[in-house]
Amino acid sequence: MSVYMLVFRVLHVLGAIAWGGAVFMVVLFLQPTAKAVGPAAGPFMRELLGTRKLIDWVVGLAWVTIIAGGFLYWHDLQQFGSLGDFLGSEFGLWLTIGAIAALVAVGIGMLATRPTIIRSLAVGAQIAQAGEQAPPELMQELGALQAKGRSLAKANLAFVTIAAIAMSTARYW
Fold it and tell me: Less crowded by CB within 10 Å, the N or C end of the chain?
């Protein structure tokens, strides 16, 4: 195995583990816990999402995974000679399905989840400034944003899972 393949495979696999693991943890544990705890979870979620910038880290891990995977994809594609031959193979088809699923997942994270979190933090700050007299429309907007964030995270987990299954099994079809 070449150093090229070793470096990009390690980056791809470690990035995917961290990315998928983070999304898994958020969807199955953090979001349900924050919802169950209610307003008391606010300071924790502000720290996690606002100060520590969890979404930026997750999107960054996604891009490390995708860029390293792109180099691996390119290497595998070269072994087939043409894109048509590559996509005509079970191996190439499943890698491509995984790549598309990963790109959809990072797109959801960047274009939908991140703006939703940013807006949620802004609305939460307005609510905190209002104190006991928070306008009901802000409370309603925050609830809607939180519900949207949970739905987006579940969609992201679904696409990351499809990518992981497709890529990890591509060699065995």
Answer: N
Give the closest residue to 163 by CA, choosing from 60, 20, 21.
Answer: 20
> CA-to-CA distance for 104 and 168, rounded, in angstroms?
18
| CA–CA distance, 60 with 51 (Å, rounded to integer) | 16
pTM across the whole model = 0.94
Two tokens, residue 89: 């193979």
Phi, psi of 53 (to 5 degrees): 55, 50
* Secondary structure of residue 5 in the 3-state scheme: helix
**Rg of the chain over CA atoms, in angstroms?**
19
141: CB partners within 8 A, 6+ apart: 123
